[in-house]
Design a protein that fits this description.
- The protein has 189 residues and is an alpha/beta fold.
- The protein has a single domain, classed as Restriction Endonuclease, CATH 3.40.91.
- Helices cover 33% and strands 17% of the residues.
- A six-stranded mixed sheet has the order 1-2-3-4-5-6.
- A hairpin with a 2-residue loop joins strand 3 and strand 4.
- The radius of gyration is 16 Å and the shape is globular.
- It starts with 10 loop residues before the first strand and ends with a helix.
- The relative contact order is 0.17.
Amino acid sequence: MEGLDRWADQKVLKSRDVPKALIDEFERVLGDATDERPLQAFLAEHPELLGPLAEPGGDLWCFDRPRLGSELIPDFLLASDSSSGLRWTLIELEGPNEPTLTKSGVPARKLAGAMKQIRDWRGWLRDNISYARDQLGLTGIHSECRSLIVIGRRHKLDAKRASEYGALSNNSDAVMTYDRLLDIARSGS
C-alpha cells in the first residue's frame, strides 16, 4: 500500500484467524494480569490477536504505541486496507480489574480517562491532520476514525447497568471487556 511502505515491519498476516493456542495463552496472561501492562506487552508481541478488531479489508497493519505529537500515545493503532482506502482504529487498553461503571451508572474513573484520551487523540488529529498523514505516514487517517476501549471483565459488569453499558458504544466508538476480545478472537479461529 502506497504510503505505508515504511511501515512494512508493522504488517500483520492477511488472515484474521487467531490460532487457538495463542488465544489460550492470552487467556492465561489475562487471568494473571493485575493491570494492563502485561496485556499490552503480550498484544504487542502477538498483534494478530487484535486483527479481528480491525475494520474489514485486506492487508492489516498494527502500530504499537504510535506517537501522535509529543505527548499522545494510543496503545495501538490498526490500519486495514479496503477498496475505499485505509480504515483506521484507535485502541486504548485499561486494566482487566477496572470497573466500567460506577454504582450510579456513569463511567468509572479509568474508563472516563480513556474516553478523554480518545477525545484528545481526535483533537490532535483534527489540528494536525496533514502532519499525521504526510510526516507520520498515517495515510488517509482522519479524526473520526473508529476507537475501541478494552477494560474490565464481563463477570464484573452489573446486569442492572446493561443499558448504560450499551450506551457507551456507537457506530465509531466501542467499549468492550477483555472477555469480548477473547470471544471475537475465538470466533475467527
